[in-house]
Design brief:
- It contains seven helices and four strands, in the order H-E-E-H-H-H-E-H-E-H-H.
- It is α+β, with helices and mostly antiparallel strands.
- The protein has a four-stranded mixed sheet, with helices on both faces.
- Strand 3, helix 5 and strand 4 form a beta-alpha-beta unit.
- Helix 3 runs parallel beside helix 5.
- The longest helix has 19 residues.
- The radius of gyration is 18 Å and the shape is globular.
- The termini are far apart.
Amino acid sequence: MITPADEALLRRAIGIAARAVTLGDAPYGSLLANPDGIVLAAAHNTVRRDDDITAHPELKLARWAARELDPDMAARTTLYTSCQPCGMCEGGILRSGIGRVVYALSTEQLVALNPQSGAWPAVPYDGPALHDEARDPVAAYYLPAR
């Protein structure tokens, strides 16, 4: 359930996205807030500026949360973002321990405005393969000899 406080913080994330455009960057902005609504960190998309396909604001904030917050605090934060996180960012958010995400535009709404943002080709996956060989280093790390 999105509250008026959520809407206010989401508007701030949208403002970050609007500011990104004035800087020549892509129109995506995010912020991370604690349970009291205090902004802990904010970021905008710098993919082109940094020549880095991972420079999405959601992923930047997920990295920040994983580095700077203990797991209990991370779990109590909310990420406010101007657009629904992509699959790459979803993975980072999940691994960071961030507790909640509130977004403005859905992926479908974004694609309607910018069809190119939904034009990623499917990548074929083959596997699993070489189980016994792949298992050894993983087992050595997670199941040390006793």
